[in-house]
Write a structure and sequence with these properties.
The structure is a homodimer of 247-residue chains. The first copy, chain A, is an alpha/beta fold and 247 residues long. In chain A, strand 8 and strand 9 form a beta hairpin. The model of chain A has no long low-confidence stretch (mean pLDDT 91). Strand 7 of chain A pairs antiparallel with strand 7 of chain B, so a sheet runs across the interface.
């Protein structure tokens, strides 16, 4: 199965870099807090970060007490930024596709992946590799685009009123899994749609126990500051999952 | 919290009775096969059926080898039919709300519920009671309306083309949980919307391990016979769950 490296496309890279600098991006407001809320205490832990990108998370994990962090990413450009801006003696950056992690010859207490797994075609293969790389009692925490979001709308995603406000999401093809090309800075970014049940069953079939799931929504404080985020009540942007390997 | 007994409403009861007689209803085609596929071997098992309705399932369970079946339902009318049409020395029918099952003074190997839990306001309470009523190693299998279906559309659920064919589902308020009055034969049938993550987390917080989930879709054979069912690829009607209590 093909391994996708859209992040080494120049136009995509620049657009993405600008997005990640925004302090009020959906990642900063919803995805990262939810992801971090599902992490165990990191003190003394060996951590693998799948799709580490610029390495900000890897650096965070070290600051929270991790003993060792291995960050992998398929993109040379992303890793160049990571090594320049977020290096640390406890962090190792490796250029590697998520599909190839079975090659890594060590075990981890924790595998974390932030918004990367929806780019992977062979989800079951990656999940099984993660399970095999974890020590007994290890934890896998990941975020991905929400399954309602990865379904192919086949046209406009939203129906809007005459003022441009969102009335409802146009949901199509939630039951049609697989590749779903979308435009995000550049054409032909491939995402892979999987139903909620497929995500759950893939994890349990690999041997994981589902710990907790979060579909992040704004609270009142956040809504007061960013009223537009009320649209998330129609459809959350992210799904965040904690899965556990038995002790 | 209120316990709902819409099934003893005359008009509702007659409409529902006719629906259940249809051999090509969504229940018969999708929900029952999915529910049954998640059941363990029933031989010698003690089974509790939550919202047993007309008792067809209870009778089935006995025919599949169950040692004892207790069917509970809040509706007197439903149980009158059950006792008349589906009685058996191994079946006990009790008029009781799902919210009151903690009163039952025996343990079960298996608790099953077909399309009843979306009528329950206190889902966490019922799930905890089910957990407590199960023997170690016991299994809880239930179906409910799909979480995309229980979200309140606040108007037309579907956008259609000029020929009346469904183009997309109008998804609103998926992130707004709670009571959701709908019209189904009569006005004011109360359903309770819960997000996918809430269903999963309620089960794991009660002590259950998630075994498997199914969002039933038609296969090619079924589509050839019932082409209209292709709409389910936009939005499955049901969610079916198997949860397990540790041995």
């Amino acid at each position: 199965m093909a391994k996708q490296n859209i992040f080494d496309n120049e136009i995509f890279f620049e657009g993405y870099q600008k997005l990640r600098e925004k302090k009020s991006s959906a990642n900063v407001l919803f995805e990262i807090p939810a992801l971090y809320s599902l992490l165990p205490d990191l003190k003394g832990k060996k951590i693998l970060d799948l799709g580490c990108g610029f390495g900000e998370h890897c650096k965070d994990y070290v600051q929270k007490g991790a003993e060792k962090v291995v960050g992998i990413d398929i993109s040379e450009k992303m890793l160049a930024v990571a090594k320049k801006e977020n290096s640390d003696p406890k962090i190792t950056y490796l250029q590697m596709a998520m599909e190839d992690i079975a090659q890594i010859d060590e075990k981890f207490d924790l595998v974390i992946s932030s918004l990367a797994l929806h780019y992977v075609e062979n989800f079951a293969g990656v999940v099984q590799s993660v399970y095999d790389l974890l020590n007994a009692g290890g934890v896998f925490v990941f975020s991905q685009e929400h399954p309602i979001n990865t379904a192919h709308a086949g046209g406009d995603r939203w129906t809007r009123d005459e003022n441009g406000n969102k009335i409802h999401l146009n949901l199509k093809n939630y039951g049609v899994e697989g590749e779903n090309e979308s435009v995000w800075f550049v054409d032909h970014v491939k995402k892979y749609h999987r139903m909620f049940s497929t995500i759950v069953n893939t994890l349990t079939e690999a041997g994981f126990t589902i710990g907790k799931m979060i579909e992040p929504l704004p609270d009142e404080e956040l809504l007061a500051k960013y009223p537009d985020q009320a649209d998330l009540f129609h459809k959350p942007d992210f799904l965040v999952v904690r899965a556990e390997k038995k002790k």
